[in-house]
Amino acid sequence: MSAPAARPAVRLAHRSCPTCEASCGLRVEIDDAARAVLRIEGDPEDPRSQGYLCPKAYAMKEIFEDPERLERPIRKRPDGTWEEIGWEEAFEYATSRLLDIKARYGADANGYYIGNPTGHNVGAQLYLPALIGGLGTQRSFSAGTMDQFPQNVALHTMLGDPWLFPIPDLDRTDFFVCMGGNPLVSQGSLMSGPDVKKRLRAIEARGGRVVVIDPRRTETAEIASEHVFIKPGSDAFFLLSVCHVLFAEGLVRPGRLADFTDGLDEIERIAADWTPERVAAATGVDPATTRRLVRDFCAARGAWYGRIGLCTQEFGTLASWLVYVVNALTGRLDAEGGMLFPRPATGRSEPGRPFDPFTHSRYKTVARGIPEIAGQIPCGLMAEEIETASAGERRMRGLVVSMGNPVLSAPNGERLAAALDELEFMVCLDIYLNETTRHADLILPSTVQLEHENYDFLFEATSIRNFARWSPALFEPRPGMRHHWQILCELGARLAGASGQVVDDMMVKGLLGMTTGPGTGCPNVTPDEAFAKLEDAEGPMRMIEAMIRIGPYGDRFDDASDGLDLRRLREAPQGIDLGPLEANRLPAAMPLERLDLVPAHIARDLPRLESALAERSREDRLVLVGRRQIRNMNSWLHNLPALAKGRDRCTLLVHPDDAARAGIENGKRVRVRSRVGEVEVPCQTSDEMMPGVVSLPHGYGHRLDGVRLSVARELQPGACSNYLTDETVLDVPSGTHVANGIPVEIAPA
Questions:
Q1: How far apart, in whole angstroms, are the C-alpha atoms of residue 591 and residue 355?
Q2: What percent of the chain clears pLDDT 70, i.e. is strictly above it?
Q3: DSSP string covering 310-341, please?
Q4: Vertex 371, ends 367 and 373: CA angle to 5°?
Q5: Is the pLDDT of residue 521 over 90?
């Protein structure tokens, strides 16, 4: 009898999941000899996730193993086929073409688009300034104008910092109101908290309540204490009626916020006419329900939260702003059990940090004169900025796309796809030949998460508990591969006529020059001395170390201190728990001296809201909303067999009454038409939808030629919901596109 085969030598590694905001702690079994991941499981010793994980945890393994991901630069030949080239040739090709366009037509003839995966890669976040500085263009596009940008604008104008997000204190609140979010599926978007289901049930277990206000009975609504249907796009009407009730019934109690808040009288004047009865036809919410909800919220320790459903609508900034107003009026902003401000280890919410004042209209689009808002142009306007017919000689001729697939994720992707072929040059930083990169002249692929270090940089600022977490690379990259930060740094440096190492050093020295030395929070070490003490010789972790050592938990570059530094961070396999969020951080944590409750930039949009009330009160409107799904992350994960398998998930949810009126049968294909486009998908009837509302998930549409995504094309091709999104309709104060509340017609296919 032969001996059993020897089990391969296995090592156990710890890291956080890089796929969504929750950043759950994982234990990963590695076979180095086979260069393989054998097992991924939740880490029970992780202080934040305590062993929890969701299906998306397997994405990092399957992306690493995907035979269709790119590892070397590829250039398009004249006949449309692709050839692999070396890095030096690729960088020379990209920079020469972009600089030629700049020399002939000016810096603004080039543009760039930043995709959502940037937020999950610390190197991509920290080295974007190198690329942006090298390009020197004002044509800046990102996925933010299809996501959270209304919240950025509200916070920038109210507090002075667009990234100072107040986060629900889930573990201590007794009354949680959730609008426009589905945290059971998203794991708490801009409310990063692993195993949200357990946390929400804990609220009810301690005698509290969870109320979901949404046009769909979502997975979160299913376990909530109460679900209230609301018509899509009407959240600003509803929240103004909430403010009205607060003032009318004497429930306004801002507490300590009153000492440094302006605009209380102004918001009372604004809310005076917005009674629950006046807005009931537009919102679909019974006035008695509104009044009861407000009274119950005020009687408990509560947090009122709004997310992407509020952002991606025609009045997204007003709705996002009013959520913060409701929390401020009730004294729940910056209060335990309410909405609190994380304190990142990197010091990004500490007093004295650089202040970037809110600006707009420094650039206006060529075709329609739409202004940039805080440096952002609505991403759906890329097409009209490129097209000769709309932009003429001032059109955008060169484009850099980093970690994004706007043909699927931006409005009217069919128009954008056609426009991309009018560009003189396009370079994409991406690991796939996808629906967008197929239009490029050059694709520069990077390593993936298992091949590089990471730090949960963005999500330490959105977490429901303070933490710092470094994750190791689990495999060495194959020879000749580049990290994303290296590509950004080298490309930006060459565009600026410098070397990558010089730019890398300058970025760190510039940071230390502002934060160390006399007159700073770290006065006992000079910038040069601090630079010499950094552990790494290059790269993003050197910048992270500089930030955490001068941050609120850092050692201030004092070798005798027990404060945080990079070595201590790397020695903590489960990360470092920095305790619960703290109350009373305002006004010190905000750059503005006083909280502006009614910023002029936002208040100017109120007449537009007033004029829309009658139209929104119609009974015959049918509108489309999006839908989160646990196995999806925008358009990223559809080429991964473990996450793409199973039934067709790209279905249109329709209330049975709406289906009957349209002559549509459950399971049959349905045609969905908007002003700009039309798609066909299977129909799924369900009373989880509010009558008058249909729902289609985001990120599908893998049916185009010239794409190397065979798993997605076979298992989850679906239809692109953004082919229905009208790029001409915007939330005016933020320039965000309207992806929820789109007027549509449905009919049998």
A1: 6
A2: 99
A3: HHSSTTHHHHHHHHHHHHHHTT-BTSTTSEE-
A4: 145
A5: no
Cα–Cα distances (Å) from 52 to 17, 27, 195, 470, in that order, read 11, 11, 6, 19
Render pLDDT for 189-233 as a digit per residue (tens, 0 to 9): 999 999 999 999 999 999 999 999 999 999 999 999 999 999 999
Residue 621 has pLDDT above 90, yes or no: no
CA-closest candidate to residue 436, choices 391, 401, 398:
401
What are the start-end ranges of the E strands in 632-741? Answer: 652-654, 669-673, 678-685, 693-695, 730-731, 736-737
CA angle 492, 496, 498 (to 5 degrees): 90
Please spell the DSSP secondary structure of 239-277, one letter per residue. Answer: HHHHHHHHHHTT----GGGGGGEE-HHHHHHHHTT--HH
d(CA 440, CA 425) in angstroms, rounded, equals 7
- 609 three-state secondary structure: helix
pLDDT at residue 536, as a whole number: 95
Q: Are 595 and 328 in contact (CB under 8 A)?
A: yes
Q: What is the CA radius of gyration of the chain?
A: 25
Using alpha carbons, select from 142, 137, 129, 124 the residue that is nearest to residue 486. Answer: 124
Alpha helix stretches (DSSP H) within 188-231: 196-205, 219-223
Q: What angle do CA 50, 55, 57 make, to 5 degrees?
A: 65
CA gap 174, 170 in Å, rounded: 8
The angle formed by the CA atoms of residues 69, 70 and 71, to the nearest 5 degrees, is 125
How high is the pLDDT of residue 125?
97
pTM over 0.85: yes
pLDDT tens string 131-182: 999 999 999 999 999 999 999 999 999 999 999 999 999 999 999 999 999 9
Q: Is pLDDT above 90 for 274?
A: yes
**DSSP designation for 35:** T
Residue 620 is given by DSSP the state S
Helix 484-495 and helix 87-105: axis angle, to 10°?
Answer: 40
Q: How far apart are CA 314 and CA 495, in angstroms?
A: 38
DSSP assigned state of 192: B
What's the Cα-to-Cα distance from 365 to each of 103, 214, 383, 417, 418, rounded to whole Å?
A: 21, 34, 11, 19, 19
**CB contact set of 746 (below 8 Å; sequence gap of 6+):** 622, 652, 654, 658, 662, 664, 670, 671, 672, 673, 694
Q: What is the pLDDT of residues 650-683, one digit of tens each?
A: 999 999 999 999 999 999 999 999 999 999 999 9
> pLDDT tens for residues 414-430?
999 999 999 999 999 99
Amino acid at 417: A
Distances (CA, A) of 320 to 414, 617, 634: 30, 21, 22
Q: Name which of 318, 49, 91 is nearest 197 in CA terms.
A: 49
Distances (CA, A) of 724 to 21, 155, 413, 509, 677: 27, 30, 9, 47, 5
Domains of the chain: 151-347+584-603 (3.40.228.10), 622-748 (2.40.40.20)
DSSP secondary-structure letter at 8? P
The Cα-based distances of 508 to 154, 460, 521 in angstroms read: 30, 21, 17
Q: What per-residue confidence (pLDDT) applies to 107?
A: 97
287-310 pLDDT, tens digit each = 999 999 999 999 999 999 999 999
Query: Which helix H or strand E contains 716, and what residues bound it?
Result: none
Which of the four pLDDT bands, split at 50, 70 and 90, describes residue 1? very low
Residue 2 has pLDDT above 80, yes or no: no
What is the per-residue pLDDT across 688-701, written as a single tens digit (0 to 9) for each? Answer: 999 999 999 999 99
Please identify which residue in the block is written with the tokens 């543009």: 111
pLDDT mean over 615-621: 84
